[in-house]
Amino acid sequence: xxSTALSTRxxxxxxxxxxxxxxxxxxxxxxxxxxxxxxLMGILTEGDRLPTESVLAxxxxxxxxxxRQSLAALRTKGLIxxxxxxxxxxxxxxxxxLTDTQLQHKLRDTSTEALRDLGDLAAAISSMSAxxxxxxxxxxxxxxxxxxVTRHRDTADERARxxxxxxxxxxxxxxxxxxxxxxATLQLEAELMTLWWGDPGQPGNEGxxxxxxxxIVEAIRKRDADAAATAAEHHSRSGTEYLIEQHLRLTMQxxxxx
Length: 258
Description:
It is a single chain. The strands form two sheets. A two-stranded parallel sheet has the order 1-2. It has a two-stranded antiparallel ribbon with strand order 3-4. The protein is built from eleven helices and four strands, in the order βααβααββααααααα. It has helices at about 10-15, 25-40, 55-60, 65-75, 100-110, 110-135, 140-155, 160-175, 180-190, 205-220, 225-255, and strands at about 5, 50, 80-85, 90. The longest helix has about 30 residues, at about 225-255. α6 packs parallel to α10 (about 205-220). Helices cover about 70% and strands about 5% of the residues. It is globular and about 50 Å long. By secondary structure, it is mostly helical.
């Protein structure tokens, strides 16, 4: 498998995922969860080469032994492959793809109240991130956001579109130049990635999403903080409404099949 060195930005995002793991996990399992989440979100992609064990363990603040335990668990799942020697190391082997059934069950089992709470958090984080980005984003940040809008618009695969949407929100938080907002966004998007966003065979809301993304970026480009915050909050609220609609429909379908 051809590999490429992990970018500094990807490593930084991986480190900011600390704290996203469920309670009760041991340290090795926490690190495995963080790397799996990064793969799920597309922060780490097939062919990415992780830093050497000594470097990665140091960045994560764990012992090399603990890291080796984490990497062994990931190898068992087929997510990475490791080679030894001077040019060796661990490389991401494949993308994680949750099945429609897994995603639907998670959304169905998440209560309407929990989805509203998640939506409130998303609206608060995204609106403040966009507000700060309108004041602090540099030209490279804006260019990257515009690139993500184009990629999202031109990508047909629903799973890939969802990962790009998550990266879009993360990119806004990066443009806000707030590491805490970026960490919160990463953890929020990691949770949203495990919910079902597609409905094969029925018309989607792709056009609305493209327009919403474009409106946010345009406001950031114009340094209009109020417009950026309003557009970002509207985008998050629309997503929450969509998830709640899907949750209620899946619940009714489950009740009807009993």
